[in-house]
Write a structure and sequence with these properties.
heterodimer, A: mainly alpha, two-stranded antiparallel sheet, 2 strands, about 5% strand, B: about 575 residues, alpha+beta, Sodium/glucose cotransporter, 3-stranded antiparallel sheet
Chain lengths: ~120, ~575
């Protein structure tokens, strides 16, 4: 090669960008609501909805069933434990702990679903 | 006097704690409305429980147990269960939406200003109906404890609420309310323990024995209003005032079994062991019937129980002052944890009103005659613990009661004020203050006209409105892409209108009988399915009005925060 050699100053080789893979491309899918992203959101919603339905179904079972039990078996009302009528004991002390258990179960499951979903998205 | 001092000092302490928690004065509208989103789950759960444990929970539950028995224990159960359902369906997505209020959420989800206004109207109705029992409870408390006219109680609530809300907004009241939850808990735990000890050493009489309620000792009863009473068994009493149209002045009268008319201001003196006459609207129940579930105390008890349970359970979802609290958490996960902590705190509290109701049967049966059953918890200390300790206990209970009125009222006023100020006005701090005045003025104008309904009855009206309008909106908007603004609007208008009409009929005209009366008293179970059906039906008929960006909106609602880019707020 002959002739004058032009010197070119390279200020930004952008090699770092070339070497590092795109970070969590799925996040962009989710954000831009591509077909894939929408499918992922749907699957997350389905999982969360299932948990919500399980939780509220157990609440409804107690709330719907217990009045029916007391109504159909009036003799339960006359049973006494330590001098206190059974319905009073059940209603005043035994139901609230059930709600606490359901609430704690739901938080744990919902957070697990979210964690697994996040890991899946970040890995891909 | 001591009572008033204790009440005032504890209330002042509550406010002080709130202010000291404020590290800087509230400056921006965001500070006012959502405490700049820096509240931890536990503190927020305390504040939510505090707002939730209103006059109805603090005074009303014990009063209802006294009058109607075990059937009323369903109310606390429904109230705590509401948070489980709320947490399952609403909290995390609602927090992730990043909207301030329910109205903001509706506008953001559907892009419709008309729907925003519809939601705002529903929010105002729920809030106003929720404020009525707070005023009523405050009036009853001061009348019973200090003999003051009812409007003094109303005035105190207005002054305390305005002071707290206008000076610090949500930021200050979060601190006040978190403190007030624990104040309320102490105000029921300490008296309950003391009462049980006294009751036990007193012989431990059984409230469920096979007798009608009777006066345990010579008792003077003053009837403040012109009322009909029902005497369940012949008894004698001294009467000063008008009875059945005849004026007496301290004569010994034989009260025959049946209905009697008592003039305003009449005073009775009953001997120990006399059966308690009941105000006509309350059932006179033998102890064993009172203790039985569905013990014939009301018409159609199973229907009423289901409807009130569903109403409270679903109504919790749409309470604007509770829902707005979740925006003060940092993220959806924290909001969910907050909601899961609430049932624990509520369970602690709700173990006690039952005790007061049952002891009230033994020690304050005269309330069945005056109809002031809301005052059960306030009168018990004086009846059970004589002398100074009793006075201090009364002061403690009254302070807890005022904590209940003020914390609930603060929360509702903030929610309504935020809604009104952003709807009509521009949403700045000054507009927020104007909104707070409107929020208090409307129920204050109505409180003098409400009928004999107790605080718990009044609050179930607010729950019913919320369950019939805002609950279906939230559930469908969060979980169903196909909901359109037309469908949501139609369901909201119908559900809210039906529930408000039923509530007004109930409040202004009192309870009626038969199936119609039962439906009017507890309309939720009939209206909620209608609202859901209308929302779904109209949405299916207007598929073209599904918001264009609904996929993006759903992604925002349901994705964990760390997976979303460029999230505002």
């Amino acid at each position: 090669m002959t002739g004058e050699i032009r010197r070119v100053v390279v200020t930004s080789p952008r090699t770092a960008l070339a070497r590092v893979p795109r970070r969590w491309p799925l996040v962009r899918d989710l954000d831009e609501q591509t077909e894939l992203g929408a499918a992922f959101v749907r699957s997350l919603m389905r999982a969360q909805l299932r948990l919500a339905l399980y939780g509220s179904a157990s609440v409804l079972a107690v709330v719907g069933g217990l009045p029916l039990v007391f109504s159909l078996l009036p003799r339960l009302g006359t049973v006494r434990l330590a001098g206190v009528p059974l319905p009073w004991l059940v209603l005043a002390l035994c139901i609230q702990p059930v709600w606490i258990l359901v609430a704690v179960w739901h938080v744990r499951m919902a957070e697990r679903v979210e964690r697994q979903f996040t890991e899946l998205v970040k890995k891909s | 006097m001591i009572v008033v001092l204790v009440v005032l000092s504890l209330t002042a302490l509550g406010a002080g704690v709130g202010w000291s928690w404020q590290r800087r004065p509230a400056r921006t509208a965001t500070d006012f409305m959502v405490a700049s989103r820096a509240v931890t789950p536990f503190r927020n759960a305390s504040a939510i429980s505090s707002e939730y444990l209103s006059a109805a929970a603090f005074l009303g539950t014990a009063g209802l147990v006294l009058a109607y028995g075990v059937d009323m224990l369903w109310l606390p159960i429904g109230a705590a269960a509401g948070y489980v359902v709320l947490q399952a369906f609403v909290t995390a997505p609602l927090r992730r939406s990043g909207a301030f209020t329910l109205s903001d959420f509706a506008e953001w989800r559907f892009g419709s200003v008309a729907l925003r206004r519809t939601v705002s109207v529903c929010v105002c109705f729920v809030g106003w109906f929720y404020l009525l029992p707070q005023f009523r409870g405050a009036g009853v408390t001061l009348r019973v404890v200090a003999g003051l006219p009812v409007w003094v109680g109303w005035a105190i609530v207005v002054v305390v609420v305005l002071t707290l809300v206008l000076s610090g907004g949500m930021r200050s009241i979060t601190g006040v309310q978190a403190f007030q939850f624990w104040l309320k808990l102490v105000a029921v735990v300490v008296p309950a323990l003391a009462f049980v000890v006294v009751w036990h050493s007193d012989g431990g009489a059984d409230p469920t024995r096979h007798t009608l309620p009777y006066f345990p000792r010579t008792t003077a009863v003053a009837v403040d209003l012109d009322v009909a009473i029902r005497v369940p068994a012949d008894t004698v009493a001294t009467v000063s005032g008008v009875l059945d149209g005849t004026r007496h002045s301290g004569d010994l009268i034989r009260l025959t079994t049946g209905d009697h008319r008592v003039g305003e201001g009449t005073r009775f003196g009953f001997p120990a062991g006399a059966a308690v006459p009941h105000i006509a609207r309350l059932p006179a129940l033998r102890g064993d019937v009172w203790a039985l579930p569905f013990g014939r105390s009301r018409d159609h008890p199973l229907f009423a129980t289901y409807s009130v349970l569903i109403g409270i359970l679903l109504g919790t979802m749409g309470l604007p002052h509770v829902v707005v609290r979740f925006y003060t958490n940092t993220c959806g996960r924290a909001a969910r944890r907050t909601a899961a902590t609430v049932p624990m705190l509520l369970a602690l509290f709700y173990a006690f009103p039952t005790v007061f109701g049952a002891l009230g049967r033994l020690y304050t049966p005269d309330l069945l005659m005056t109809g002031d059953t809301d005052a059960t918890i306030l009168l018990l200390p004086h009846r059970l613990v004589p002398g100074m300790p009793g006075l201090y206990l009364t002061g403690l209970v009254a302070a807890g009661a005022f904590a209940a009125f003020t914390s609930t009222s603060c929360g509702i006023v903030v929610a309504i004020a935020g809604t009104i100020s952003q709807w009509v006005l521009r949403g700045g701090v000054r507009d927020f203050r104007a909104g707070a005045l409107v929020a208090l003025a409307v129920p204050l104008a109505f409180v003098a006209w409400i009928g004999p309904l107790g605080s718990a009855g009044l609050v179930t009206c607010a729950f019913a409105i919320s369950a019939c309008s805002l609950c279906p909106l939230l559930v469908l908007a969060i979980w169903w892409r196909g909901l359109t603004s037309a469908g949501a609007g139609a369901g909201l208008v119908l559900g809210c209108a039906l529930a408000v009409v039923a509530a007004l009929a109930q409040i202004l005209y009192g309870p009626s009988t038969g199936w119609w009366g039962a439906l009017l008293a507890q309309p939720t179970i009939a209206i909620v399915p209608v609202t859901f059906a209308v929302m779904v039906g109209v949405s299916l008929a207007t598929p073209g009005r599904v918001p264009a960006g609904v996929d993006r909106i759903m992604a925002r609602l349901h994705l964990p925060e760390e997976l979303t880019v460029n999230r505002p707020g």
